[in-house]
Amino acid sequence: MAHDRVTLADVAHRAGLSKTTVSLVLNGREGTRLSAEAHQRVFAAAEELGYRPNVAARSLRTRKTATIAFVSDIVATTRFAGGMIRGALDAAREHDHVLLIAETQGDATFEKHAIDAMLDRQVDGVIYAAMATRRLTVPAALHAGPVVLLNATSADGLPCVLPDDERGGRTAATALLSQGHRDRIAVIGRNQLKETDPEVSLAADARLNGIRAALADVGAKLLRAASCPEWLPEHGYTAMRSLLRRAVRPTAVVCMNDRLAFGAYQALADAGLIVPDDISVVSFDDDPIAAWLRPGLSTVALPHETMGRRAVDLLLDGQTTGTTLVPMSLRRRRSVAAPA
């Protein structure tokens, strides 16, 4: 018998039970009235016949399709941020849901088309995600149903999941303080636009606040903060070289992301200095490059997979407001040591 022709009545006939009873068993709503042997007969019959439930019909009854839309800008094609999708996929599977993924590449026209197409499929909710942590404008169509923002906030007060960047900043600074660094800690990656415009970045200001707060707790403050037009290796290189030219050289630097740290490593090597013997380096994100640097870069990891999981959980729990901050843990490698 072909799989697409198998009906509930066929399963009931094979199991020797009523169609209603079989339906309740397969939908997990029968309770304990039937014996374990009867349950086994139902599942065995369904498997033997290759029975597949009519999802469309069931969704009409329950108004649930067991599908979640995941709409993002460039998360899917960014290896670094792809952990958010992995986490969401795992959580969706555990909830017996399927994740429908669309990446817009920042194209507003395609985004509208993708969102409309997913809403037309009656998804149970939408996760609206951003690769960079920032405030964004949520398309009007998404306000009609359940939505959770992932790695983003909005002015609408919608539920969102964010990395706890401020506490991450404290963690980075504490990693240096615990090794004895105090008054000669510098920062690489100050950027006025990132620190003042939440539509560009929420991470920059939060990380800096955390760093400063951890230093203030022990009566210390930053030696210096080097500005960078972008958080890219070449700017980390230039910033590190400028710090080394100062009369008072830092014993440690906090880089605002791992790409800046990569550039800083190169500048230190060119100057004949060794990490961490001469200068300790700690950073943020745990980009794959961090583990490949020599020595390995200690960095405060973005918890992308956990964030993806939490977004699905909040969506299916019916969360309608509030911010969920996910802790960022330190990946301890070999770039931090006591000052020389």
UniProtKB/TrEMBL annotation:
Residues 6-62 form the HTH lacI-type domain. InterPro entries: HTH_LacI, Lambda_DNA-bd_dom_sf, Peripla_BP/Lac1_sug-bd_dom, Peripla_BP_I. This is Alanine racemase. One of its GO terms (molecular function) is transcription cis-regulatory region binding. CDD domains: HTH_LacI, PBP1_sucrose_transcription_regulator. Keywords: DNA-binding, Repressor, Transcription, Transcription regulation. SMART domains: HTH_LACI.
